[in-house]
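Reviewer comment 2.1 asked that we show a complete input and output for one of the modelled complexes. We chose the glutamine case, as it is the one discussed in the main text.
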Amino acid sequence: MNAVFRGLRARLEAAGVPDAAFDAAQLYRFVTGRDPRLEEAPSDEESRRLEALAARRAAREPLQYLLGEWDFLDFTLKVGPGVLCPRADSEVVCEAAIEKLQGRPAPVVLDLCAGTGCLGLGVARARPDAQVTCVEKSPEAWPWLQANTAGTGVAAVQADIFTWYRTLRAESVDLILSNPPYLTAEEMARRMPETAREPAAALDGGPDGLDFYRLLTEHYQTALRPGGWLILEIGCAQAGAVLALGRRHGWHSGSCRRDYGGNDRVILLQKPDGKYRQWDGKAEEIHNKRL
Ligand code: GLN
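Response of the prediction step:
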C-alpha cells in the first residue's frame, strides 16, 4: 500500500465518510487504474486528480457522481448530479417485475419516475421482447435517462406522471413499475449529506411520503390489462399504508417483499382479472425473502 492511498483513506475517514476505505479504493482505482495495495506511487498528474476527487468526496458528494457510473444488477448506468443514484435496494423491485412478466409474450412495460432508467432497463435486458417506456419529468435527470436508454430499444418520455396517465390507452399495458419519491417531510429534513446532494424531486414524497402512491394506485389501473401488475418500491415503514391504498383503489393480490438487506421494499398489486374477486387479506403478511 502506498502513502498516497493511505492519505486518501485517512482524509475520507476524518471527513466522516461512511465506508471510507471502500470509497478511497474506488477513487484510487478510477484515477490510476491500479490496485491500491500496490506500492507503486501515483504520478503527479494522478495525485492532482485524486486530490480533487478526495476534496469533493470529503465534502460528501456521492461516490457515484464522482465515478460517473454505477452498477445495477448485471449492467452499468451513467450517473451524475441531477439524478438519483441507482441503489442495490431497488434490484429486488426489478426482479419482482421480471418474475411477474413470465408467461406474458411481448409485454408492454412502463417505468414511472425512471431517473437513470435502472428499473426499466433491467426489465428490458431480461426481456428483449418487452416494449419498455421510461418516464421522467425532471429536466436535470432527463439527460441521464436519455444517455442510458440510447441504443437500447427502451423508449424515454419526458412527462409528469400526475397528468400523463390521461394519455394512456385503457388496458394497453402489462406492467407498471416505479421507484417514486417516498421520503416523508421529516426524513427529507434528516437526510444523510450524500442524499442531500441528490435531487429533492426524486426523494420528496410529500408530508407523509405517500403522495405518489396515492396517485399511482388511483390513476394507473385503467391503463393496465386485466391481471396486469403495479410494482412499487417503498420505504421500509410504508408497506401497510401502501397496501391499504391498493385495497382502497380496487387492486387485488397485494403483497410485500423485502430487499436483500431484510427491509420491506416492494409492494405488488394486481389489477383484477375476474379470477381474483377478494382482496387477499393474508397477503399483507407475506414476505418472500428471495424470489
Ligand atoms: N431509498 C432512497 C433513500 O432512502 C429513497 C428513494 C426514493 O425516495 N425513491 O434515500
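Residues 70-290 form a domain with the Rossmann fold fold (CATH 3.40.50.150). We note this here for comparison with the apo prediction described in Section 3.2.
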